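Local shape tokens:
==================
===
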Amino acid sequence: MFESLGVINVWTYLVGLFFIIIAPGPNSIYVLRTATVRGIGPGYRAALGVFVGDAILIFCAYLGIASLIRTTPLLFTLVRYLGAIYLLYLGVKILHANFIARREGQESAVELGERYFSKALTLSLTNPKAILFYVSFFVQFIDFSYAHTWISYLVLAGMLEAMSFVYLTLLIFGGTLVARFFRRKQGLARLGNGLIGLFFMGFAARLATLSS
């Protein structure tokens, strides 16, 4: 069936996709934290940012833009540092909101006016690891003798978005359950938020040292 659409080794693709999607990363952690702190609606807005970001990166891979970034050290370095700076910024902001703003008795503007969609979208688009993934992983499952490879990209992208939707939905509803527990354990809630802030800073450090 899928071979007729220019997609080969589809089961290998799905297994690889499963492990890639469930691997912890800044996108999934941001969606989980948003759902835990702000609820289901904001969690899905953050997830939508991830979906749109993935779709844009897949389209860029199809156009060859992702290959250009991969083979142009200056562009790759620029995207890498932009992503690292943004992750560091989010990590510091979370730590500030969690420890300093709360200690001063303020409700952080981060929590009140958060642009969940745009932040998740920015996280996706400034992650060169994702760009490299769409270039190197997708092409292994496309039959380039097929006349309409855009259909093959569309099929692979649809599978990715569907699996990502299921996984992020589990995180969103899991996050709301966790939130009920943490409402009674404010000390643990602050500790959890602090660890998430440190995770983002760790992702920033790892991204800054990533090589093409």
Notes: The longest helix spans residues 149-183. The chain has ten helices and no strands.
